[in-house]
Amino acid sequence: MENKMDEVMQRTSRYFYADGLVELAVGGLFLAIGVMLEVWARIALGSPLVLAITLGLILLIIGGGLAINRAIGSIKERVTYPRTGYVSYHQRKPSRSRWLIAAAALGLAILGGLVLPEWFSKMALAEGLLLLVVLGYMGYRVGVRRFFLVGIIAALLGLGAALLIPEDLQGSSVTFGGTGIALLLSGALTLRAYLQAHPNVSEEAP
Amino acid sequence: MNADLLSLVEVDRIIHEPARLVIVAILSSVESADFLYLLNETNLTKGNLSSHLSKLEESGYVTIEKTFAGKVTRTICRLTPEGHEAFQTYRKQIRAAFTESPAPPS
User: Fold this and answer.
1) Tens digit of pLDDT for each residue in A132-159?
2) What is the pTM of this model?
3) Contacts of A89 in chain B (CB under 8 A)
4) Is B57 on the interface with A (CB under 8 A)?
5) Helical H segments across B1-106, by residue range
């Protein structure tokens, strides 16, 4: 009975990801970051464009996070809530386990930097592992299996980029861009399945 | 009677009813949810859900508020602090009764 209640509660948490919109938004952001990193890698050092790209990247990361929240809320209001209902979640403070996971990922990255050979692009591998840990944790917490798959893809992309691309920025570009595309695909498939399963209906109050 | 089993007899009957238990479990994990979401998740009829929500509201466990999202009405349901407490107490009683009572003879 306890398990059934836990399942009901976890399903409610999972509902936020049921339409794939989060993956589409985050995937778009990752792809944009990947493209900017690629442009950065191709610009000659000392070019005035480097500063513009650096600032653009910072703005994209900070502004993108804020924009994603607003965009997801607005699209859910039109797409998800009329179909399967509205849910508002508690704003939770970051838990201790989240800090521990972030510390573990950082530790792995530092260890990788110390142990791995010079020709190995450490940045891409660290980013791939970090994405695996973050997506894996999210998948475990809310019980969304497809996040594990995208996390594994991110780690494989990071490993591949680390082995094959000696330039750190280009390696990061492949890791972020590839993970972004994986998230976009996952989000698009999830959204399609969601829309097929739930035709639009309007709420009738009791 | 075993104290843990006795606590099972004393569980809150308002929450113990299966449909209401699902409603309360859902509302306990979110800030609020609307009627349509509860309807989809519980698979109850509109009339049944409405009746269970009214009972929970009468008991002071749930608040129901009608708002507008554009031109559409939205019936927002929230678990009150009393509702949260009652649900936690209910879980403790059930856990105690099921985990600490002796296993049935083989």
Assistant:
1) 999 999 899 888 999 999 999 999 999 9
2) 0.80
3) 30-31
4) no
5) 3-9, 13-16, 18-28, 35-42, 46-58, 81-100
